[in-house]
Amino acid sequence: MTGRRYRLYPNAEQAPVLSGWIGCARAIYNAKDTEERYQDWLRRYAKFSARSFAPDERESAFTFDQAFSHLKPSKAEAPWFHEVPSQIYRNAMYQRSQAWAKHWKDPKHAGRPGRRKKGETDSILLTNELFQFWGAGLILVGTPKHFVGVLEYHEHRPCGEPNSVTITRDTCNRWWVSFCFDDGIEAVSGSEILTELNALTNEDIAAVTVGHDRGIVQQVTGSDGRAYGLSKEKQARFVKYQRRIKVLSKKLARQKDKKSRRRAKTRIKLAKAHAHVADLRSDHAHQVSHWIVSSPARVYVFEKLNLRGMTRSARGTVEDPGRNVRAKSGLNRALLHQNLGRIVQFTRYKATRVGKLIVEVPAALTSQRCNCCGHTEQDNRNGIRFQCKKCGYTAHADANASVNIKDDGVIAVLTMLGRSMGQPFAEATRARTSVHAQGANEAKQRSSHLAA
User: Fold this and answer.
1) Distance from first CA to last CA of the chain, Å, rounded?
2) DSSP character for 148?
3) pLDDT per position as a tens digit, 3-18
4) Which domain holds residue 326?
5) What phi, psi does 125 have (nearest 5°)?
């Protein structure tokens, strides 16, 4: 399975119709949320009310139904609700049921479905009875009774026939059509990749492994000598749009009347500037991940960074205010600007499609450890320069860290295969994909550079 996202270009007559579909679907979606909360209140707290009812002990505390007809107002009160295909409301209820399923499956990471807000989640799901592709760049939307027309989209890459598409309108009034389809390429699981790697010797595994150090000054530095970062042209474009964002933000702050048309125009211009910056970052992350996966290596190692904690605000509270808040906010902006998390995210899915492995290792002390002698000291690194205080080895700090990350990644792979660094290949021919405590202990006792 793969996905596509194309820019959609509805005309002046089609855009209001799609906006009406989005608004009606959002209203029914939010009405369902109100109904769920009311039913939950009856179940939990209306114990002394005649409307309360005891929950069935054999069932869960809440079950979702996709009924929506009773939520629509009458045709006399709101006729525009009846100008939308019923499949739009059905698909909105299906999306809410999927959100509940995700919440019940993993409540820690998937929260309870909430309400849709105008301007934030402006999208509708179209199933195959509501659309039809008319060759490259054309899609027919609607039914014989509720016909929208033939819309143009920019097909920058070929695609297959999907079963459903999602039409989205972003904050700067740009329209998009996105979908998934079966391209015949199956993702390779990590256990299958490890089985293939188990046929190699320890030295061969080290030869096909590349470590990558991520940072602010140099975005990504590989142990194979490759470095990835923003070019001068991209940096200039970022500076241009960031300067424009600053000017428009000040202008928007001066326009106090929120019903003003000029303020609405300024808000759209500001949203477009932010969208340009986001598109530049996403495009660069895709390019870097493509360059990384296109290398001949088979194992890519990254340091596991807690980016959420690293970019947390240092403002503190009123009782316990933070220190160096301004400097920390600048560091946070620089980290977020490099888009380090999405580079690994994009590299992971692209590597899975071509049968390559992504390994993450702890980032602690990788920038302070000497790759030659293994000596670890904070004074070894001074900015971008690394000089070991014990053996005198000198290198670029990111290049030294990338080699350390590679070595840690090789140890992690061998541990997953049930081997140790000094174990002969003939003694480790059985494919074992689980991590063994003995191999982990041996990895901790071993020095950082690979055995000859």
Assistant:
1) 42
2) E
3) 889 999 999 999 999 9
4) 190-226+295-445
5) -100, 125
